[in-house]
Write a structure and sequence with these properties.
By secondary structure, the chain is mostly helical. 70% of the residues lie in helices and 0% in strands.
Length: 119
């Protein structure tokens, strides 16, 4: 069995990396910095080996689906960058409105409780 000769070719940067790997690298470095402890933190979050995480920080490769979910769970900047790159920044705005609404509700409950206790 052989693979087809034709198919979709993903764009590759001049250094041989793809846009997804570069997106992850830039986002991780912006969020966590270039310090060695950042690699250990991301490895802990994802369960990936440190060499693998170093490759993500260098933009040599990107995380697989499971590791991407772990990154998004622990670093919301990765989700935001991915949504922006996918042209779905509207999802970020909707999430921010939802979070602001929940914070406002919590603040109102606190104010109501304070008002009840202090007359």
């Amino acid at each position: 069995m052989s693979f087809p000769k034709k198919g979709r070719v993903l764009p590759v940067a001049a250094d041989g990396t793809g846009p997804f790997a570069a997106l992850i690298a830039v986002t991780l470095r912006q969020s966590l910095g270039d310090r060695p402890s950042a690699i250990k933190v991301v490895a802990r979050w994802t369960g990936a080996g440190e060499r693998t995480v170093k490759n993500w920080f260098a933009g040599k490769s990107g995380p697989n689906g499971d590791h991407l979910m772990d990154l998004v769970r622990n670093c919301p900047d990765v989700l935001d960058a991915f949504l922006i790159a996918a042209g779905r920044s509207d999802r970020i705005a909707a999430s921010n409105v939802r979070e602001a609404r929940m914070a406002l509700i919590a603040a109102l409950h606190t104010l109501d409780k304070f008002s009840e206790e202090h007359g």
